Amino acid sequence: MSTALKLGSPPVTGIKMGRKHGSLKASKLKVFAVDGDAGDTASFPSFLPKEVEKIKDPFVRSLSKRMQRLPVQMGLSESCIMSSCIKPLRQSNKTSPVVLLHCFDSSCLEWRCTYPLLEEAGLEAWAVDVLGWGFSDLASKRHHLYQLWKSYMKRPMILVGPSLGASAAIDFAVHYPEAVEKLVLINPSVYAEGTGELAKLPKSVAYAGVSFLKSLPLRFYANMLAFNGIPFLTILDWTSVGRLHCLLPWWKDATVNFMLSGGYNVISQIKQVKHRTLIICGQHDQIVSYQLVVKLHSELSNAILREVPGSGHLPHVDNPKCVAKLIADFAQGDADVDAKSQFGLPQLTALPR
Transmembrane region positions (predicted)? Predict the structure, then answer.
């Protein structure tokens, strides 16, 4: 469905273990997976659909059991919104929190491969569901993220946004610059003019389109587009992961509301971003063109650009060690050095291919 791809990334995720990079070794990731299996008797959170029990991916099973809902007060006269996230095991005032958003029509489980590596690197990582997406309730996305940050983090954060999540990150950074220290934008989808003509659809047609967005064939096709050479049974499992949040009772209403609201249009906000920014792009991304990534790099006043070889639209999924190292180095202030020395990644000058 071209409409779904216009809104952001394929709404499915998976894992394809890549090469070893830097000090984040594959063995550590394996330990995490084994530990997750060893503790598989632990129960899944009650707010997750029961279908999560059928997921075979050990990274999903392990991380989903750490999911929790935190109360977020949206206003003085409003009740709390129960907001789903993966909360760090340890918090420290000595480091900046790294807050991981996700793609359109996805959830924080998208970070199941990279998240444990960020923890191994000593970062205080939060994987949060953008409100109205993932496993959270409905509300204002930007204001909700601010209230979540104000209630639980309270220090300038490194905000990470993949695909359409990059639009959410830019929108947030422009409106709440004091809450952001740095930005990381992964294959950023930031030049779409919102949802375009979809915002004018009659509600009945919009609901029909959203029902198709939930369908297994479309989700399966999105996996095929995002990844190559993946076994059939693995793709089926990833398809189940990618549509898990669609089984929540409010998902259809949330998606239609987002579509009819006009969605994100941050084109006019890009040049207002003054924060230090790391742009990560996958070499074989079939969703966001390299030319648009180059354009974004040129329009941001303080940005560096890194390409992940062999990766597609979701490098934090198909090359988690590389992405985790890039984020960790950027968070610690030495991305310019380690991106080249540890990975042999090109020091891109943003010239067209």
Answer: none
